[in-house]
Specification:
heterodimer; A: mainly beta; six-stranded mixed beta sheet; 12 strands; B: seven-stranded mixed beta sheet
Chain lengths: ~110, ~110
């Protein structure tokens, strides 16, 4: 079956540090891959996506590249801000599966 | 603006009572989903629906029921059979597998 594994948190960084949150997946075929962000007390928001191998999704300074050879979709940002403090979820959808598989989430705290 | 609305934001109920959580979307999305999130944990799928008048059980459907009589609406009933109903409930919708989900802002249910 499908599965998503994220690096365990919490992750604590200083402002302007480089961020990497690792995500690897197991799936048959060619899934679409997503990163979502959740701020305290809110629902999840789609941050970025990639629908085929070697695609790079990007949004708000965050990037992730769909690496089929390593089955990975690591989230990166060059310089984090305090406002980036949130929980980040990696997810995949297999074509026609009708539902996503989510990782357990990684909590990021950025300190000034 | 198009979006997905969950109501109420906070809900308190006595043990043994059924309660219905509302989810409405005006995005013209075919698919809708209900997830449960417990503190510090990931998302668990309760039910999903890919088309009006049809829905499927997710991973933790016991003690819950849904209906999909209209494209825009996907209410979730938490029944007295649900052993531990206190949680944060998230509704989501999607146009297709490659589009990602749009989430509501969630309903926090507390059973006392």
């Amino acid at each position: 079956g499908n599965s998503v594994t994220q690096m365990e948190g919490p992750v604590t960084l200083s402002e302007e540090a480089f961020l990497t949150i690792n995500c690897t997946y197991t799936a048959t075929g060619y899934p679409s891959l997503f990163w979502y962000v959740q701020y305290p007390g809110e629902g999840l928001q789609l941050l970025l996506k990639a629908t085929k191998a070697d695609d790079k999704g990007s949004n708000k300074g965050f990037e992730a590249t769909y690496r089929k050879e390593t089955t990975s979709f690591h989230l990166e940002k060059g310089s984090v801000q305090v406002s980036d403090s949130a929980v980040y979820f990696c997810a995949l959808v297999n074509t026609n599966a009708g539902k996503s598989t989510f990782g357990d989430g990684t909590t990021l705290t950025v300190k000034p | 603006d198009g979006g997905i609305t969950q109501s109420p934001k906070y809900l308190f109920r006595k043990e043994g009572q059924n309660v219905t959580l509302s989810c409405e979307q005006n995005l013209n999305h075919d698919a809708m989903y209900w997830y449960r999130q417990d503190p510090g944990q990931g998302l668990r799928l309760i039910y999903y629906s890919q088309i009006v008048n049809d829905f499927q059980k997710g991973d933790i459907a016991e003690g819950y029921s849904v209906s999909r009589e209209k494209k825009e609406s996907f209410p979730l009933t938490v029944t007295s059979a649900q052993k531990n109903p206190t949680a944060f409930y998230l509704c989501a919708s999607s146009m297709g597998d490659r589009d990602g989900y749009t989430f509501g802002s969630g309903t926090r249910l507390t059973v006392v």
